[in-house]
Predict the 3D structure of the following.
Amino acid sequence: MQEAQQAFAHDEVPIGAVVAHKGRIIARAHNLVETLCDATAHAEMQAITAATNFIGGKYLPDCTLYVTVEPCPMCAAAMYWAQLGTLVYGATDEKRGYSLIAPKVLHPKTPVLSGILENECSVLMKQFFQKKREHK
Ligand SMILES: [Zn+2]
């Protein structure tokens, strides 16, 4: 949530992600699409890269990735490639969420927990897009 709020403050779509390893946060990231002018700079992609840098290996089997909004298919695929241990997310993304578009893209054995702080996560998104509409 803190990372999502940072994204919000920088006029980025407010999505934040952290990666935990053995109860310790090893990577924190938020959406940087506007900042980096890179449509693939989603919070989860940044978090995976930071976590693998921290671990010093390309796989994250003992890690849990927490993200405020359901990952898109690209990020879910990245989690597959990184062999992520567990995925936890807040709000469902009813338009771009992987579970709707490509439910098989995440590794079938990856445990998924959803709906954690769902309301807080989705309210932040709604506030952001409302602000965007008002300022157009
Ligand atoms: Zn994504």
Notes: The first strand starts at residue 16 and ends at 21. DSSP finds six helices and five strands in the chain. The radius of gyration is 14 Å. The beta strands are 16-21, 24-30, 63-69, 86-91, 112-114.
